[in-house]
Design goal:
The chain has about 220 residues and is an alpha/beta fold. It has helices spanning about 20-30, 40-45, 50-60, 70-80, 95-100, 115-125, 150-160, 170-180, 195-200; strands spanning about 5-10, 15, 90, 105-115, 130-135, 165-170, 185-190, 205. The chain has two domains: about 5-15 and about 90-215, HAD superfamily/HAD-like (Rossmann fold); about 20-80, Putative phosphatase, domain 2 (DNA polymerase, domain 1).
Amino acid sequence: MKQYNTYIFDLDGTLLDTLDDLTAAVNYALRQHGMPEHTREEVRHMVGNGVRLLMVRAVPDGDKNPRFDDAFRTFREYYMEHSLDTTRPYDGIPELLAALRQQGKRVAVVSNKFYAATRELCRHFFADTVEVAIGEHEAEGIRKKPAPDTVIEAFRQLGVSKENAVYVGDSDVDLQTAVNSGLPCISVLWGFRDQAFLEAHGATTFARKPGEILQ
């Protein structure tokens, strides 16, 4: 696989297996507000485009439900307290990031998870290897993925250009983010979407395990 100077990673489903904690937070919020819960596999297909859309998909009638804002607030509060209960890096990810940094590569994370949670998870798991961590941004005019804005912000904070950079993710949103950012994309197969789904959305380069990104 081609080597790059800068690696921009998605977080959920790419670096971290967050599905159990997300499922627990979704179902806690739904229970608190008298709504039906979802299975882990159902939540797997809801994630990928930010936590608000996750809850829009989880709540009956989405954000048209008069209790949606309360359920979403409960989800956020619960998740911030429990985002480290079961979340772990995928096997081989810490070694991949360490190797990239040892080789002098620049490394950033860009996620649609809310900003505080993105920074906390990266600080907890990848403090020595992820240089910049950007979540759903509150600054006016910075749109979430698949818009290129947070990727552009990552380059700005790293102090690099997009020349010889690559985006690494596990979803159709990541593929579109790469296209919108003018970057090639490596789609990982250990995350929340399978190869058939990714190919149907235009993926052409795959990593079946983290070590392949270094090869």
